[in-house]
Design a protein that fits this description.
- The structure holds two protein chains of two kinds.
- By secondary structure, chain A is an all-alpha fold.
- Chain A is built from seven helices and no strands.
- In chain A, helix 2 packs parallel to helix 7 and helix 3 packs antiparallel against helix 7.
- Chain B has a domain of 35 residues.
- Chain B is 78% helix and 0% strand.
- Chain B is built from three helices and no strands.
- Chain B starts with a helix and ends with a helix.
- The chains are: A mainly alpha, B mainly alpha.
- Chains A and B meet through helix 1 and helix 7 of A and helix 1 and helix 3 of B.
């Protein structure tokens, strides 16, 4: 993970989606107009968040299996980074909703689900800070994390699909994949998603490494 | 790499595609070339952040070596 090439790849990918995302062709649709380009920037935030939470889940399980503190550190830092991407996703979503739906927040299953999921992961961080003893903290928060992940997926991904919602991909709404008849958007979108996921992993790994150094300092 | 080539391809298709009917798109903005400035600004910001990340990476690497 300390190799450099994938970091350069991430930067090149995201940079190319800034160019391709703003200059490339998009489906011409009423109401959405040019804001359809937000798909390249708003959606990857959520994908990145989910991947980071998934990494956190994997490391929480690994921690419970082995009891290695490093795994616990990785789990926290993945959530810490995921929260940032979640905040970016919420904020960009509100800006976009304001212009297309007329209000920054509709009480829509997708939006409320995302809000509850965010609070759940904030609670994870609060829980950690509330526990003094290190081993106990790591163990309890790892178990909490294992429960939080599937609930987050249900709230963000499954429940909105079963309800009526304004958000694309929910209820009977089409996703952008269906609107993009000519497949103009697909390559740029996938590049953006992979690029941002790599950037998210990069930031998380940096935080993890800093935490390791801190830990080593404190133990002396 | 394949994705990147597709992006370039998508860009080239875009130059030849024309707008339809009445839906309001920022065609004028693009035609006048002003959107390129926005692209340039966003690239500068993003690349600055990326370079900043690289320098942090470098610093962390140094700290790891010191111990």
């Amino acid at each position: 993970m300390r190799k450099r090439w994938w970091k350069i790849l991430a930067v090149v990918m995201v940079a190319s989606t800034i160019i391709g995302g703003l200059l490339g062709p998009v489906p011409v649709l009423p109401i959405l107009n040019e804001t359809i380009r937000n798909v390249y920037f708003h959606v990857p935030m959520w994908f990145t968040m989910m991947v980071l939470y998934l990494i956190s889940l994997i490391y929480s399980i690994k921690y419970l299996n082995s009891g290695k503190r490093e795994y616990d550190f990785m789990a926290v830092e993945a959530v810490n980074t995921g929260i940032i991407f979640c905040a970016c996703g919420l904020m960009t979503g509100m800006l976009w909703a304001n212009i297309t739906w007329g209000t920054p927040w509709t009480n829509d299953p997708q939006l409320n689900g995302a809000a509850i999921a965010t609070l759940m992961y904030l609670a994870y961080l609060v829980l950690r800070n509330a526990l003094e003893e290190e081993q106990k903290r790591a163990k309890i928060s790892a178990i909490y994390n294992i429960f939080a992940f599937p609930i987050m997926i249900v709230l963000i991904y499954i429940l909105p699909k079963m309800n009526d919602s304004l958000h694309p991909g929910s209820g009977g709404n089409s996703t952008f994949g269906d609107l993009d008849m000519d497949n103009y958007m697909r390559p740029v979108f996938y590049t953006a998603v992979i690029g941002w996921i790599l950037i998210g992993c990069w930031i998380a790994s940096l935080r993890y490494r800093i935490r390791l150094i801190e830990d080593k300092r404190n133990s002396f | 790499m394949r994705n990147f080539l597709f992006t370039i391809l998508a860009l080239m298709i875009g130059l030849s595609a024309n707008a339809q009917e009445k839906v309001q798109m920022a065609d004028g903005l693009r035609a006048e070339g002003k959107i390129y400035i926005v692209v340039a600004v966003m690239l500068v910001i993003f690349l600055a952040v990326a370079i900043y990340l690289f320098t942090i990476d470098q610093k962390v690497k140094k700290l790891e070596k010191d111990k």
